[in-house]
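Open question from group meeting: does this chain pack into something compact, or does most of it stay loose? Before anyone orders reagents, we agreed to write out a predicted structure and look at it together. Recording both the input and the output here so the notebook holds the full record.
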Amino acid sequence: MHEPTPCRRSPLGARLLPALILTMTLAVVVLTTWFTPDPAGRSAAPGDASFDQPTARVVAEPTRETAGSSPNERQAVPDQEPPALASFEATVEQLVTLGMRVAELAQQDEIDAAKAADQEARQLFSELMTRFPDAGERGLAMLACVQDAPVDPGTPSEPSRAEPSRAEPSRAEPSRDHGRCIVLKLVLETELARRDAVAVAAADRTRIDPLVQALLDLLPLGSRIADTGEQVLSHRPWLRLVHEPAVLGLVRLAAEAKFSRAHATNLLLTLWNNLQQSGERSSEELSRLALMLLADADPSQRTAACRQLLADPRYRDLVLSWLRERNDQAVASEIACLAAHELPPADALHVLRELAPVLPRSPAAYVMLGYRAPELLADSYRELLASNTQPGWRSDLITGIGMTTSGLAIEMAQLALENDPSPDVRIQAMFTLTSKRQADVAERAMQLALDDPRIAQDPLRLGAVVLALQNLEAGGHCNELDRIGQRLRGLPLADGSRQTLEAILARALPGGETSAPARLPR
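Structure tokens returned:
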């Protein structure tokens, strides 16, 4: 029997560091969306008298007659120039610096200081959007100068579109570019929302449509620009019929591998949805267009066409039959994820089942659906388990249910581990149970998996069990990890799995490398 083993735990700040950095870096983006411009118009703007005109003084200009007057009399005071306003570009850079400061303070667990810096950033962003009515155009000009990060830091990259003025970029430049994109994304979203509100109220889109068009024109210039622009435009109401040629142009570039297919597909789907919502095209017109594009050579247009037709029950079976016949796994995988995310859960599950001949496994889609309808997936699993059919589907169903935080995840994983005849489904159930950070549940799951000779004697499946040990390590379950590790040491692991096992034990257990028994011959 093993004595309780002291565990090497990393400091709390180290374990929470990645989440804190991401959360606090994006805090500027999330919190500033609540900004409401001053309804009374009291905020200073470039055209306000308080900035453009010298302050009026009620002092007399000294004259010869008054030069010798009493010292108690008021004397002339020279007007003072108002403080110079920072430029748009300089203010954006201040916001980037503040965002990086927030991340740095969060990394150091200085939460109060991070909140104060975030408050300062929110106020500065509000001033930026109030002072610059052309913030959208200014933001586009800055976005056009954003450079892509090198593919490999050790490999010279291709010449960029706009070389920096200094000879060597600083090491902090990539992170500043990322922060700059975040700030510019928020600027564009806020400005487009501001102009859209005016367009709806006045039935006049002359200010918003050109800005959207200019953003679309920028997207092919670089991957960072494309990522930022796609996040601004996708699933938002800005794209309209006037932008259709530009969006289709991006689709054609994607077909030539000159633009992201995922971005092109999302923009085309957003455009079609907006056209239908605004009444610029009816659903019948869009369905006819989708039918024509279904056989298009470009995969982005095929994906968008399939998604459009799947939303209409009249064409759903036609699309599924077409996908099965073509056996296009790339498009089928995209459609599976779109269906799991957007269609009613029962319809989405039907689509996933119908695509099984093309996609024997589709865990990502089942994870999306599991968050939306875990009970539906549980009922489907019970049905397949009773008939002992489709082990691939059963594994995906357990994957989808297992990613939820409800008690149903543990219940269904235990059912699968104890009763499912497929060793692969049982391994997936083991992963689910070890991820719940309950020491006794995790250890029992791994012991049950190793009791199955189809797992314990198969080096490939044993490799999956070794990987599951990382869940025990992350949860700090050192005693349980020690017991499972000692058992695994006596099993026929592949060389790579054995090295991984020893590395895990060395990290988590004192003397993990030296306490290993003599290895059994394999």
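Observations to bring back to the group:
Confidence is low (pLDDT under 50) at residues 1-71, 151-172, 513-522.
The chain has 26 helices and no strands.
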